[in-house]
Every structure is written in structure tokens, then in C-alpha cells.
Design brief:
The complex is a heterodimer of chains A (252) and B (950). Chain A has seven helices and eleven strands. Chain A has one domain: Alpha-Beta Plaits (2-Layer Sandwich), CATH 3.30.70.20. With 252 residues, chain A is of the alpha+beta class. In chain A, the strands form five sheets. Chain A has a three-stranded mixed sheet, covered by helices on one side. Chain A is elongated and about 85 Å long. Helices cover 19% and strands 18% of the residues of chain A. In chain A, a hairpin with a 6-residue loop joins strand 6 and strand 7. Chain B is globular and about 80 Å long. Chain B is 24% helix and 15% strand. In chain B, helix 3 packs across helix 16, helix 7 runs antiparallel to helix 10 and helix 7 runs parallel beside helix 13. The relative contact order of chain B is 0.15. By secondary structure, chain B is an alpha/beta fold. Classes of the chains: A alpha+beta (252), B alpha/beta (950). The interface between A and B is large, with 97 and 110 residues. Strand 2 of chain A pairs antiparallel with strand 35 of chain B, so a sheet runs across the interface.
Chain lengths: 252, 950
């Protein structure tokens, strides 16, 4: 229903996020910073219904989930997983849109919703396998991550602040922003070095955002250090005498 | 179809003002974006030394904190009974007159009848000074239920502390040991630090019963049994000593390892340090074999007996320490059962620590000179860093456990070495800092100031605040035989002691920002009874008058008589002072201010300004001028600039001197605050490179520190692996000296005042039948919350609006409990009924939940049926402020016997399956909303464009 721009050409800019699951502690800094910027930004407002009642319901463009998963060695691991729009190269959320409100920008690949033409039919949120879109009941409009399109080019901000609010806030440095269409960009190199992967690649939507897998942990199973041995202390007698003898020798 | 035009350069703000965050105790620099005087966006200040631009979830949710409907709007006077929530609004003039009347009555008759305790505030150098000028001995902040074990253990061992007094060398560390829950303090610095460690490939080991938060990204999670960290650390020490894998040279030079400890059983000098007539500690010079005064220029013997004049013998402290930790009781195989950690794991971690610290140290090409004048051409690192906070602190064995961790650091030579744990100004201090607590009967005179500070560091029994019979002089019993080294006071005992009139009753309780009728107290129902209880004879409340200041309608507001409504953090001046809790960096001192970035919309005043106003009305010395007029008519900002604690030393260290060219010391500068604002509201001055490491023995550093007033003499700061001050208390318990503990306390003092650190079981565990209460119950700190502030925030409560009791799958299976069931959790003190979630990453003998999510229904202007009140819960109901009775019926406070630190994490419970329910138990009567609160909005469209906006 809505067509995609041709983004297959060489040098096509593909702006996106690289999220490091090895360093994400699940602190929610990115989620709240996102909420804070975007509630007054392009998507304003991100409405909060019943914010002080029993069931508060707000619009968030970035949500963080915590899971326990079993790793390849059968050990339980805690993983924090930030979830937001992945700005797919072939986004079903765009192609299903009956009005053209959902669209992918030709210039940089950002997927946006035009609030003026969105009719709130929610087809896009059904189409998105990542659950990355949020409907604002009060506003009657679908909302989603804009990659802070109103920050990354914003002349009113210092150049180093022209990055998505989530990346700007992230305390552990687990979030990175850049052009994943450029193999020489820092983010592309990071993805290559850390074997970053797509989320649900089989679905075929070719997400631009990448996730870096947790690094192998260095615990008993991977780094079996030799226990310290008393034999390392030269000399005779019990351990006490050997310790004191050793100290006598090393202290000059 | 053409793409719509998108404005990619909107300007949704008209100005940006710097200030300092106050969404937790971390104190990050922020920039507040404002549009028409409304807060639009808060971001981290890139230039700020604390957060370097990043901002946590709490910081970004500051907007919702500032505009919270729980904000108080005017001074209130209680009209109904306590707890009824019935108040009338009064003018500030009436409020201040009333407070002055109450306080002046106390001051002119018996100043100790005022108990003034402050919660999580950051102005303790002002509040402490105010209380001192008032003349009451009964002052402290909340450290007694927070972190005093950490502060005291560190300051009695190496003149610094974890907490805010230092930080890991994130840049150079190769191995990081993180003990216990650490997600609240130093929130952003620890997170950025962890990121840096990851980037540098350092190994992270988390020792915590729960694999929450930071544990999730650690290389190795050690799911220890709560309260046994000391055993684990002692076993690491056992391994390192047993294999000679220690930094012998730094131990010999920078610690009291070589000092001779007198062995004189039964005598008054047994266990003290042998000294020459000048009082200098003696050691055996290894080169000459002679007994000489210890010095960094002498290599001492670390073992062997020596005969002293007078017939006693002595041995180096190191030998005593080594004998203790090489004993079998601290071997990995012996501690395994109690800690739940395999011996092989302990042995491996010990080996890894040694390898990381000793085998390939980072070397900084920075020449430096030590305190004895010896020149070093390089700084050689010991890249093992550690951090610990309340997971260690909140146990009744926390003081000694923390000392064990410091001993481990010291043996590896990591203190203030590159890659280790680094001091932050104004630390290091002498061991312990040369400040004595003041507050004995002879110090308290009606109408007079106290002649010294409330809090300090006793080094012998004569320093205690006890009367001739050995009874406590302070209401909280700090610095008594119950808690001799209570360097932060015992706020958690104030209400309980006052209501029980043990040691005495009071007239006025004055508190600031401390939710004592809810999440900041143990035994909540008991505290509520104490706050509302009346004297049988007079019918008057047991605590006759309660003045309380808070910005929000917390649970405590309903139990006070006079409410002084505070501003939010964006509406006030504040200083984060080097005289208080520092924000310095390891590379140099720093301090900061808050400036009002928005005008208060309510009839509220910043508490610090109110305190100065009350001080002036009471005529307190230093708060009035010669004509009895207020000395700081410009309020707190005036004080921040013009107050001098010592000549040239005031609350702020930057831009001092008439022209603003001086740092640390200099006359007041009328333009100082503007200079702070121009610099982003902070001041930071890195030390020269040669003064940045080994500060305890670094001549360049020590001289700077002396000039700055951080230390009184530029002598080297020697670490105490053996604590002679602690031994002096033990000697008193053995019947020596002029000040001795009453008979009932002797055994306890003797047992726990061990000059060497050791491990003992937490008290609750030792006093209850562990078969009846087989499990441990602890809390963890959600990263997106700060106590009760976070759980009322419109955005943060959407992230975590209720809590569950988490337990290990295997344990739940044995109890027939499945995910979503309800259980009774029963302690020796009480019972709660709560919902359960199951997980893998928790020690099998431990249940846990998030701290301070549970609220009392009706508080904080949340809907009465909000999940925080109806489903959320606190473990506090299970914890008694007193320990079970001992022989003789005496009930000690549920606290560390050395410092008085509240032992929240000692809790033992039994878990039983319960019937499904709709609400958690206990439930209390819904609090009535206090007068003046705005109605809760049912919808928030924050940032919605108004018509006509671009």
C-alpha cells in the first residue's frame, strides 16, 4: 500500500543503532531519556494515561526487558534487552500503511510516521514483528522511534550532542549510533568485530539496528587458573614458617 | 509520493541552565532545557566530572519529580490526631514562629530534648553546624542505617572508604570485585566505569546472592549466602598468604604490619603497640635487628618475637594477622559450606587476583617522591579494584567484613595504586581521622552551643559519650558501649528510644527528608505506635512535638505536627561541599552547586534557608550578627558564599578570594556563584600528575592536602591492618582503664572489639532457631529508583510499579510454590503475605525483593488502589529494630556491635505457601491526602504542542 524508496544503491545511508548486550545493565536510562526527549519532540506528546492510578499506561518508544536465558553451556544468564524500532530495510510496517503515513526516508533510511496523515488504523503495529510501535490512544496516532530525527541534524544542538537521546544518555556506553550502510563507519566496524547480528533475521525485514552478543564469560569453565600452591613458597616447616621465610627473603 | 517535510532542527526550548541532579545521591551535572519557564528536557552535562554527560533513568525522570502531584504546597499544622492526615494550612510566619517557640523552649531549658536528624539530604555540613550551635547532642544524618560500617571500617583501616570517599581506577583496573548491591550510590560513575572495564577487557566478578543489575554483565557471578562475604574474603586472604602472593613491599612500608604488638596477657598494655617514649610505634629493623621507631625508611621484620623492657614480649602485627588467616577455619574447604562457594572457586579467584595484581602491572611513567623523601621514577600499578556498599554494610558483621575487604586490598597493594581503589578528596585522612565526638553531659548547656562536632572517631573508651555509670548520653546511644564507633549516629533508633524514654524522653523531634513512618524504618507498625503513642499519665504524645520538612506528601508527613514544605531540587540553591559528602574525582577535588532553574509555584521554601532563618530567630551564634540581625539575609546562597568554617575555608572551594583567583582556601568572593554557574555549576581542579596516586604516602599530595585543610599534618598515612584503637576498647572490657563498660556489656565488647578483622555469624541468625527461619531475605536496589522518591514518579512507576518476592526455582519446587503464587514470609518479628516470582539467578537459601517499591495506600498522592500500596510490599515489617532477647532480657539494637549500623540484611525468614489474594499483607488504613495537594492528573500530555507553536 505504501511503497519503499529504492535504498539498494551503493553508498546508501542506513542510520541505526548498535546495542551491546554485553554491557547493557538494564538501567532504563535510555528508555527514560527517550521518553523525555520525544514527549516534547517530533512525536510530542508521548501521552501517559492514568499516570498516578492503579494502571498507568504510557507511550514509550524504547522499552527494556530483562530475561533469564540458558546459554550454550547450559548456564542461566541474565540478559537485558532494549527494544525499539530497528529501521528495517524492508519494513512491513511501511508497506502495510494504507495512507502513506508510515514511510522510510530515502535520505537516511529512518522509518517515520507522519502524524498528519496517520489514521490510527494500527495495521503497522500488527505488521511489525518486533512490537516496536506504540499507539497513542489519546492522540489517535501511532508513535515509534524516530532515531531522534529532530536531534541528529539539529543545528541548535552542539555537534557532539547530535545523536539519539538514548545513545547520549547511556551510562555504560552500550548504545552506538551511526551509518550502518558505510562499512568503514565506527558502528559497522564494531558490528564486524563483535559479530553483531540481526534480530529475527529469518523474517526477512533486514533490520538496520544490530545487537552485539554477550562476550563469552571468563569463569571456571573458560579460564581455569591454577590454584595457588603452597609449594611456591620455598623453605621448610609449616606454611607460617615458609611465609615468614619468604618475606625475609623478598624484603630488602 | 513525496516525503513530508520534517523539521530536523526544531528548538523546543528558549534557554538551558546548568545545575546539579538530585534524583539520587550521585549528584551528576545536568543541563535543564526550559521553554517559557517550564522544564522541557534534562540532559547530563558533558563537562561534569561525575557523570561526564551521561544520565540515568532517574535523572531523566526529573521532570516528573519536579511536577509531581505529591508536592506539598504550603506549611501545615496538624489539627486531627497524628496519622489522621488532618492539617490546616498556615503562613510561613506562623510556621516559623511556632517552630521557634518550640525550639527556644527546649534550648533554654534542656537542649538535648531536641533530636534533629536528617535523611538523604546533602547539606550535612550545614545541618550539623546548626545542631552544634543549637547545643543539642542529638544530631546525625541517616548514615547509621545506610553505610556507617563502610565509612568506619575504611577510616579506621586506611583513612578512606568505599562509598563516596573513593572509586576504582576504572582506567587501569584489570580485575574488579564487586561486593553486594551497588546500584544506588555512585549510580552513573559505576555504570560508566563498568563500560570502561568491558572496553578494556578487564574481568568483572560480582559477589552477590542475587544476579540482578550489574551482576548480569559480570564475567563471574558468585551467588554467595548473605552475611558470609567476610568468610569468602578471609579465605582469599588465606590463599594469598599461604602462597606468598602479596605485595610484600607495600605491606611492609605503608602499613603497621611491622609494628610490634605487646603480648602481655592480663595486663593493661596487652595487645597495644609497643612505643618509644616519644610515642612512636616500634618495629624490628630487619637490617640491624634492633628495635627502632617505625618509618618508611626502615624495612621491618614481619615475624618473630622480641623482648621488651619490662619483661613483656611483642610480635609484629603482620605475624598475628597471618596466624589468624592461615588457620584452618579460613581455608576454602572450611568456609565452603557456610558461604555456599566451592573451594575450587575461591582458590581460582585468589590465583586470578594475585596474577592480575602482581604479574603484569600497569606502569605509569610519572616520577614521584614518597613521604620519606624517597624518589620513585615510576608509578607501579596493582590493577585489582574493588567496590562494596550496603550488601556488606547492612549486616551486623559489616564493620569487620569491610575491614577484611580492605585487608585484601592492602595485601595486594592496590590502595591508591594505578588500577586499584583510589581516594577522592578530602580523603585520605589520618587513621582514624583526628576528630572526637562531643555530646557528654558536661558539653550540653542551656542556651549554649555544643563545644565541638557531634560525630567523630573515638580511639579509646574515654572518647565515648557515656555518663559516669557507662550509660548513653545521646538519645540514639551512639558512641555508647552499645555502638562505640557510631561515626554516623543511629537514626534508626531515635523514634524507638524517644518513645520508650530509653535513655530519656525528648520534647521536639525535628526531621528532614526521612520517611521514618515507612520505608526508612524497621518495624513499621511499631514505629507508628511510637509516633502516635501517648503518655498514660499526661495523655500527651510520647514524642510531644514533631517538626518535619519534606518536599512531598510522604508517609511521614501524616505523623508530624508541623510541616515545613521544601522545594524540589530544581527550585533551590544548594552546595555539594567538600565539608560534606564529596563529589571529588580521584584526580582532584571537586564541588558543585544547585541553582534555582525554575521559580516555585507553591508557598514552599528551601529547607536550608528555613534552617538559617530559624537559627537567626533563635539567635544561634554564627547565624546572627552583632546586632542580632540575621547574618545571612540572602538565605542559603548568601551562606554558601560568605560562611567560613575556618579562615578562608567555606562551603565552596572554587573561585575564592576577592577576585576569584584562589582555590580551596581564600576569602569569600561575592561573585563566586556566578563563576560556578558560568562553569556549569561545578568546580574541579585536578592535582598535578605526581600527586594523583599513592596519596597516603605521596609527599606532593600530602602537602597540597595540608594546604587545603584536608589533613592537619602532612605525615604519611599508615594503614592499620591491626587496630590499636579497637584493642583499647577490648582492654576496657577486660577491666583496664578509667572508663570501662558496665558489666552487662563486657562480654559483647570483648568479643567484637577484635583488633584484627574476623568473621562471625550475623546476630539474627545466631539468635533465632535457623531451622525455623531457614532462609535469608534481602532487598536489591532497582537502578531506576531511589527509595520512595522513585516509586511515585509518573514515568518510573511505569517501569517498576510493583514488586514480587523472588525465589530460586528449586527452592520453590520443594515448597510446592509456582510462579505467581502467594506466600507468607515469616520472621521472628512479623509476617507478610506477598506474591512470588521464580528465578535461577538467586542463592538457593535467599529470597529477595526490590527496595522501597511498596507504599502505604493513600500516600504520595497516588491513587489509593495503586499497585504500590495494594500489591507492593516492604520487608521492613519483618525486621525488628531490636534483637531478640539475650540472657538477662536485654535487647540490643539490631545493629553492628562496633558501629551501630542497622543490620537490615541479617533478616532470616521462613516461606510458606499461602492462598491467592488480591492485596499484599499487611495493609494499613489508607492515608488521607494532606491539605493543599493538587489533584492527580488523569492524563499527562507532557510536551504537547500548544496551538500556535511552531
Amino acid at each position: 500500500m505504501t511503497s519503499l524508496p529504492d535504498t539498494s544503491g551503493p553508498g546508501q545511508k542506513k542510520l541505526g543503532l548498535v546495542i551491546d548486550l554485553d554491557t547493557c545493565v538494564g538501567c532504563q536510562a535510555c528508555a527514560v531519556s527517550c521518553k523525555e526527549w520525544n514527549t516534547q519532540g517530533y512525536s510530542a506528546p508521548l501521552t501517559d494515561e492514568d499516570p498516578y492510578e492503579a494502571n498507568p499506561l504510557g507511550v514509550w518508544l524504547n522499552r527494556i526487558h530483562g530475561y533469564e536465558v540458558e546459554d550454550a553451556r547450559g548456564n542461566s544468564r541474565a540478559v537485558h534487552f532494549p527494544r525499539s524500532c530497528l529501521h528495517c530495510e524492508e519494513p512491513a510496517c511501511v508497506t502495510v500503511c494504507p495512507t502513506g503515513a508510515s514511510y522510510k526516508r530515502a535520505e537516511d533510511g529512518i522509518v517515520l510516521v507522519n502524524p498528519d496523515t496517520c489514521i490510527g488504523c494500527k495495521l503497522c503495529s500488527w505488521a511489525c514483528p518486533y512490537g516496536a510501535r506504540e499507539y497513542d490512544h489519546d492522540d489517535g496516532v501511532m508513535k515509534k522511534c524516530t532515531l531522534c530525527v529532530d536531534r541528529i541534524y539539529n543545528d541548535n544542538l552542539e555537534p557532539e550532542d547530535r545523536q539519539p537521546a538514548c545513545v547520549r544518555a547511556c551510562p555504560t556506553g552500550a548504545r552506538h549510533f551511526g551509518d550502518l550502510g558505510d562499512p568503514q563507519s565506527d558502528v559497522s566496524k564494531l558490528v564486524a568485530a563483535r559479530e553483531g547480528h540481526d534480530l529475527l533475521p529469518d523474517m526477512g525485514y533486514k533490520p538496520v539496528n544490530k545487537y552485539l552478543p554477550p562476550r563469552p564469560r571468563r569463569d571456571a569453565s573458560t579460564s581455569p587458573a591454577e590454584p595457588l600452591r603452597l609449594a611456591e613458597l620455598a623453605g621448610k616447616g609449616d606454611v607460617m614458617e615458609r611465609l615468614f621465610g619468604w618475606l625475609d627473603k623478598v624484603l630488602s | 509520493m513525496a516525503e513530508p517535510e520534517v523539521d530536523t532542527s526544531p528548538r523546543g526550548w528558549d534557554e538551558v541552565k546548568p545545575t546539579t541532579c538530585y534524583m539520587c545521591a550521585c549528584r551528576c551535572g545536568i543541563k535543564v532545557y526550559l521553554k517559557d519557564g517550564t522544564v522541557r528536557y534534562i540532559e547530563g552535562n558533558r563537562d561534569h566530572p561525575v557523570n561526564k554527560g551521561v544520565l540515568c533513568a532517574k535523572g531523566s525522570a526529573g521532570i516528573m519529580q519536579h511536577y509531581s502531584p505529591a508536592r506539598l504546597s504550603a506549611p501545615l499544622m496538624r489539627v486531627g490526631p497524628r496519622g489522621s492526615g488532618e492539617f490546616r494550612e498556615i503562613s510561613w510566619e506562623e510556621a516559623l514562629r511556632t517552630a521557634t517557640l518550640w525550639l527556644s523552649g527546649v534550648r533554654s531549658s534542656d537542649p538535648k530534648k531536641l533530636a534533629f536528624f536528617t535523611g538523604r539530604d546533602q547539606s550535612q555540613s550545614l545541618t550539623g553546624w546548626w545542631a552544634k550551635q543549637f547545643g543539642t547532642p542529638n544530631y546525625a544524618a541517616h548514615g547509621g542505617f545506610c553505610s556507617v560500617n563502610m565509612a568506619a571500617a575504611g577510616l579506621y583501616t586506611f583513612g578512606g572508604s568505599f562509598w563516596e570517599f573513593g572509586e576504582p581506577d576504572w582506567e587501569h583496573a584489570r580485575y574488579f570485585l564487586l561486593f553486594g548491591v551497588a546500584e544506588d550510590h555512585a549510580s552513573n560513575p559505576i555504570k560508566t566505569g563498568l563500560g570502561k572495564l568491558k572496553e578494556n577487557g578487564a574481568k568483572i566478578v560480582s559477589i552477590n546472592p542475587v544476579k540482578s543489575g550489574y551482576s548480569a554483565i559480570a564475567d563471574e557471578w558468585v551467588g554467595i549466602r548473605p552475611g558470609t562475604d567476610g568468610l569468602f574474603v578471609a579465605a582469599l586472604i588465606h590463599e594469598l598468604l599461604g602462597s606468598g602472593r602479596i605485595d610484600a613491599e607495600s605491606v611492609a612500608r605503608y602499613t603497621n604490619a611491622g609494628w610490634l604488638v605487646i603480648d602481655h596477657p592480663g595486663k593493661a598494655d596487652d595487645g597495644l603497640i609497643a612505643r618509644n617514649p616519644k610515642g612512636e610505634p616500634l618495629c624490628i629493623d630487619k637490617a640491624s635487628g634492633k628495635t627502632v621507631a617505625a618509618s618508611g625508611l626502615i624495612t621491618p621484620r614481619l615475624s618473630g618475637e622480641v623482648k621488651l623492657k619490662g619483661g613483656a614480649t611483642a610480635r609484629p602485627a603482620f605475624e598475628l594477622m597471618a596466624r589468624r588467616f592461615l588457620a584452618d577455619e579460613y581455608s576454602p574447604s572450611v568456609v565452603a559450606a557456610r558461604t555456599g562457594i566451592e573451594p575450587a572457586t575461591i582458590q581460582r579467584i585468589a590465583a586470578e587476583l594475585a596474577a592480575a595484581a602482581l604479574d603484569a602491572p600497569p606502569v605509569l611513567d610519572i616520577p614521584w617522591t614518597d613521604a620519606w623523601g624517597v624518589k620513585h621514577d615510576k608509578m607501579i600499578g596493582r590493577p585489582v579494584a574493588m567496590h562494596a556498599m550496603r550488601g556488606i554494610s547492612a549486616h551486623s558483621n559489616g564493620f569487620h567484613t569491610c575491614r577484611l575487604i580492605h585487608l585484601l586490598q592492602i595485601l595486594l597493594g592496590t590502595i591508591d595504586a594505578p588500577g586499584g581503589f583510589r581516594y577522592k578528596s578530602p580523603y585520605p585522612k589520618r587513621v582514624p581521622p583526628p576528630v572526637k565526638p562531643v555530646g557528654r553531659g558536661e558539653h550540653v548547656t542551656p542556651g549554649q552551643a555544643l563545644p565541638g562536632p557531634h560525630l567523630g572517631f573515638p580511639v579509646e573508651p574515654a572518647d565515648l559519650l557515656v555518663d559516669a555509670d557507662g550509660n548513653p548520653e545521646r538519645l540514639d546511644k551512639a558512641f555508647s558501649w552499645e555502638a562505640p564507633l557510631a561515626a554516623h549516629g543511629l537514626m534508626h533508633m531515635v523514634i524507638s528510644n524517644a518513645a520508650r524514654r530509653d535513655p530519656y524522653g525528648i520534647e521536639v523531634l525535628f526531621m528532614y527528608m526521612a520517611n521514618m513512618s515507612w520505608n526508612s524504618s524497621m518495624n513499621i507498625a511499631g514505629v507508628i505506635d511510637q509516633l502516635t503513642g501517648r503518655d498514660d499519665a499526661t495523655g500527651e504524645y510520647l514524642i510531644p512535638k514533631i517538626i518535619y520538612s519534606d518536599a512531598y506528601a510522604s508517609e511521614m508527613v501524616s505523623y508530624a505536627d508541623l510541616i515545613l514544605p521544601d522545594t524540589t531540587y530544581l527550585e533551590r540553591w544548594d552546595c555539594i561541599s567538600l565539608l560534606d559528602r564529596p563529589i571529588s574525582e580521584a584526580d582532584g577535588p571537586a564541588d558543585s552547586i544547585r541553582q534555582p532553574v525554575v521559580e516555585p509555584s507553591r508557598d514552599v521554601r528551601p529547607f536550608q534557608e528555613v534552617l538559617l532563618d530559624l537559627g537567626a530567630r533563635l539567635g544561634l551564634e554564627g547565624m546572627v550578627d552583632d546586632k542580632a540581625e540575621p547574618k545571612y539575609p540572602g538565605g542559603y546562597a548568601d551562606y554558601m558564599v560568605n560562611h567560613q568554617r575556618l579562615p578562608g575555608i567555606g562551603p565552596l572551594a572554587g573561585w575564592r578570594g576577592a577576585d576569584g583567583t584562589k582555590s580551596l582556601r581564600g576569602e569569600p568572593n561575592p561573585d563566586q556563584l556566578q563563576r560556578y554557574i558560568d562553569n556549569g555549576c561545578f568546580w574541579y581542579e585536578p592535582f598535578p600528575p605526581e600527586a594523583r596516586y599513592f596519596k597516603h604516602v605521596n609527599r606532593a599530595y600530602l602537602e597540597i592536602a595540608k594546604k587545603a585543610g584536608f589533613i592537619d599534618i602532612a605525615d604519611p598515612i599508615i594503614f592499620h591492618i591491626y587496630s590499636e584503637p579497637v584493642q583499647r576498647f577490648r582492654l576496657a572490657a577486660r577491666g583496664h582503664g578509667a572508663v570501662q563498660p558496665p558489666a552487662a556489656h563486657r562480654q559483647r565488647v570483648e568479643a567484637f572489639f577484635d583488633p584484627l578483622p574476623f568473621w562471625y555469624p550475623p546476630f539474627e541468625e545466631a539468635l533465632v532457631e535457623t531451622d525455623d527461619y531457614p532462609m535469608h531475605a534481602v532487598t536489591q536496589r532497582p537502578m531506576a529508583m531511589y527509595h520512595s522518591w522513585g516509586s511515585q514518579n509518573a514515568w518510573l512507576r511505569q517501569i517498576l510499579g510493583r514488586n514480587w518476592l523472588y525465589m530460586a526455582r528449586e527452592k520453590a519446587k520443594a515448597l510446592g510454590v509456582v510462579d505467581g503464587d502467594w506466600v507468607d514470609v515469616i520472621s521472628h518479628h512479623g509476617r507478610i503475605t506477598v506474591p512470588v516470582k521464580l528465578m535461577d539467578g538467586v542463592n538457593a537459601d535467599t529470597v529477595w525483593t526490590w527496595n522501597a517499591i511498596g507504599k502505604r495506600s493513600g500516600a504520595w498522592n497516588l491513587a489509593p488502589d495503586a499497585a504500590e500500596g495494594k500489591k507492593g510490599f516492604l520487608l521492613n515489617h519483618l525486621i525488628s529494630e531490636l534483637l531478640p532477647e539475650r540472657e538477662g532480657g536485654y535487647r540490643y539494637s539490631n545493629a553492628d556491635p562496633v558501629t551501630g549500623q542497622a543490620a537490615w540484611y541479617d533478616l532470616r525468614v521462613r516461606v510458606e505457601k499461602a492462598k491467592p489474594r488480591a492485596t499484599s499483607l499487611p495493609q494499613f488504613e489508607t492515608l488521607k491526602p494532606v491539605k493543599g495537594l493538587k489533584s492527580r492528573p488523569t492524563i499527562v500530555r507532557w510536551g504537547a504542542r500548544k496551538k500556535g507553536d511552531a
